[in-house]
Amino acid sequence: MTEFEELQSEWEKQSQPEAPIDGAGRVREKIASIQQKQGIANIVLTSTGIILVIFFFYISAYKVQTVMIGLLLMIGALVIRIAIEFFSIGRLRSLNVSVDVVRFKAQLTKYYKNRIKIHLIITPLIVLVYCVGFVVLLPSFKANLSEGFYNYIVISSIVLLVVLGLFIAKQIRNELRMLKDLKS
């Protein structure tokens, strides 16, 4: 046997990845589940953003620079996160599940790596900007609210941040696990 024939023989012996029975259906279901969860997250973020915009105009935040800066940081962080999720849903929808396994895996790997960057880099920065905006508002809250209500806002916001942080972490872990399952 020549070297070429040996190489060709070894090449032909390699196992080819086989698509599981109803693999495309399972993939579509998982993608639909991820899209649904991203859509729900966008609804919650949009609702929060709308409430902040209404609050911004209700209290005439544009008249007090620190209040305006704080609320704009919070609203801006939400708008950026909504835009990221909107574009991410579009990318997920553009995945072509009808291509061969190797191409689909490449598409999914690219999407998966992008989501990891979003979750591990961009999301913490967005949460940080949102928190900075809130902290900027605290002196105005302290000056204009009773001490009891101010303490309630501070304590409840810390509790809410911890609970929301745990919820976001759980959702991120679930999404990344689902995407990792799709890759394999």
Automatic annotation (TrEMBL):
Q: Where is this region: Disordered?
A: 1-20
Q: Where are the transmembrane segments?
A: 40-61, 67-84, 118-137, 149-169
List UniProt keywords, sorted A-Z: Membrane, Transmembrane, Transmembrane helix
What is this protein's record name? DUF3278 domain-containing protein
Organism lineage? Bacteria, Pseudomonadati, Bacteroidota, Flavobacteriia, Flavobacteriales
